[in-house]
UniProtKB/TrEMBL annotation:
UniProt-recorded name of the protein: SRPBCC family protein
Record family assignment: Belongs to the AHA1 family.
Any Pfam family hit: AHSA1
Domain Activator of Hsp90 ATPase homologue 1/2-like C-terminal positions: 25-155
UniProt cross-references to InterPro entries, sorted A to Z: ASHA1/2-like_C (IPR013538), START-like_dom_sf (IPR023393)
Amino acid sequence: MTMGETEFVIEPGRQDVVMVRVFEAPPEVVFQVVTDPELIPRWWGPHVLDTRVDRMEVTPGGRWRYVNIDAQGTEYAFGGVYHDVVPPERMVRTWEFDGMPGEVALETVTLEAVPGGTRYVAQSVHQSVEARDAIVKGGGPRGGREAMDRLAEVIAARVV
């Protein structure tokens, strides 16, 4: 894997999606950017949507809620609960889209120092293969790739 590329592992018959990206910054910087509510709107989600952070309590038991807003003002809310937070190595949280109540995924993000940067791995485990496949068919990887590209820009601006 080279810097600047986002890879996805989406295997048939499995309930998970794994997204991997290497950023040119140490884990402390990557962790700080992905846990700063002021920076989330600059990178979270596809570039065609604006993002508002309604809640972000990055601590075990803390809740999070982000809202994507399209050009017509339609809102798409996502949220969940943080279960584990180990700066700058790992975050584990639930993930639920308001438009699909009850379809909760468990996301584990790990940050590992590698030569020249940080390997970011996000594994989302869904309740069923069908639920995972619906996210994939709905453009999840495309949105994830755009978000990772935007995140790389925010991180690059912090590494001077």
